[in-house]
Amino acid sequence: MKALVKLTAEPGLRLTDVPEPRTGPGDVLIKVLRTGICGTDLHIRAWDGWARQAVDVPRVLGHEFVGEVASVGADVQDIAVGDLVSGEGHLVCGKCRNCLAGRRHLCRSTVGLGVGRDGAFAEYVALPASNVWVHRAPVDLDIAAIFDPFGNAVHTALTFPLVGEDVLITGAGPIGIMAAAVARHAGARNIVITDVSPERLEIARKVGATLALDVSNTDIAEAQRRLGLKEGFDIGLEMSGRPEAMRDMVDNMTHGGRIAMLGLPAKEFAVDWAKIVTSMITVKGIYGREMFETWYAMTVLLEGGLDLGPVITGTYDYEDFDAAFDEAARATGGKIILNWA
Ligand SMILES: [Zn+2]
Ligand SMILES: [Zn+2]
Fold first, then answer.
1. Which residues hold their Cβ within 5 A of ligand 1, which is an ion?
2. Ligand 2 center to residue 100 CA distance, Å?
3. Ligand 1 center to 120 CA (angstroms)
4. 211-214 sheet: strands from edge to edge
5. Under 8 Å CB-to-CB from 149, ≥6 apart: which residues?
6. Where are the domains of the chain?
7. Whole-angstrom distance, CA of residue 178 vs CA of residue 172
8. How far away, in angstroms, is 289 Cα from ligand 2 center?
9. How far is CA 136 from CA 86, 105, 150, 277, in A?
């Protein structure tokens, strides 16, 4: 089968033929229809410091996908050939304290699809049945392909109650934009989102941000003044991993404010801990999606009318992967989809 592979320990990707994945009695083999390109995939293509320590070659990339079940193992129940499915890309150990307690997203031995094992940028992908999400309600194929990052957005946005709250989102990448859409749908009052890309800020306005702020020329304190906020933001969603964004966020939170942090910093950085203490701010790290509470939430949010259409800004056939990756790497648009069918 055709697959997008990191073949050797150097920058770049290769479209090449690889054997179909082997499956066991508990596994599901999925014919891939569409996939989403993630920042993780860009890191692996670029072969940066993170990728070099996280990925062994050769490796088939990709973890954001929708597909159709091609076959199921003898022990698999409730999933049938022909089902439309996406997959939870974190494979957990099932044995650690958190796994045993049902808190699988907190597993200490998570293996990432397309990172620690072969992924979904291929004609077929295999997953344990316990990682397969069956779409039982009608769903747009492009949106189904990005359930993984949509789940990051939902997990982060709904970590703290935000009905009537003033929400600050730093970083208007696809996940930040989807978090803005979720916050609007879920009843936040003001939603301020920051970035330095005018195109991304425009998409954020389309999904319901109150104010999309270019922080290269306007600071967040100015946004507070424009909106008439007097005590700061109640909820912060940090989506950029950038030190200056986290510092700005801490500076603009209300006393008792709560920050959910999904953006992954490239290295250690300093923040004003005295401010966090005296403002009594909660900071919670978010990684992945709750299995499968977040997946349930995604499905019902879409059923309830949440519109993620503006988030998809590019579609390519898989043969044109280099152009698709280049567009994703420019970081000026939304989600880029690869078509495999
Ligand atoms: Zn991803
Ligand atoms: Zn575990």
1. 38, 149
2. 7
3. 11
4. 211-214, 191-195, 167-170, 233-238, 253-261, 282-285
5. 36, 38, 64, 174, 175, 178, 335
6. 2-146+308-339, 153-285
7. 9
8. 14
9. 11, 23, 17, 46
- Give DSSP secondary structure letters for 285-321: E--S--TTHHHHHHHHHHHTT---GGGEEEEEEGGGH
Helices and strands of the chain, counted as H and E runs: 12, 18
Q: Write out the H or E segment, with its range, that includes residue 183.
A: helix 174-185
Q: Is 299 a catalytic residue?
A: no
What strand order describes the sheet that includes 59-60?
Answer: 14-17, 2-6, 59-60
Environment of ion ligand 2 (residues, CB < 5 A): 92-93, 96, 99, 107
What angle is formed at CA 322 by the lines to CA 316 and CA 327, rounded to 5 degrees?
A: 70
pLDDT in tens, the chain (341 residues): 999 999 999 999 999 999 999 999 999 999 999 999 999 999 999 999 999 999 999 999 999 999 999 999 999 999 999 999 999 999 999 999 999 999 999 999 999 999 999 999 999 999 999 999 999 999 999 999 999 999 999 999 999 999 999 999 999 999 999 999 999 999 999 999 999 999 999 999 999 999 999 999 999 999 999 999 999 999 999 999 999 999 999 999 999 999 999 999 989 999 999 999 999 999 999 999 999 999 999 999 999 999 999 999 999 999 999 999 999 999 999 999 999 99
Q: Which ligand minimizes its atom distance to the CA of 63? A: 1
Q: Which residues are known binding-site members for Zn(2+)?
A: 38, 63-64, 93, 96, 99, 107
Which class would CATH give 2-146+308-339?
Answer: alpha beta
33 burial (CB, 10 Å; 0-12 / 13-18 / 19+) is: middle
Active-site residue, 255 included: no
Tokens of 267: 């290295």
3-state secondary structure of 31: strand
Domain 153-285 adopts which CATH fold? Answer: Rossmann fold (3.40.50)
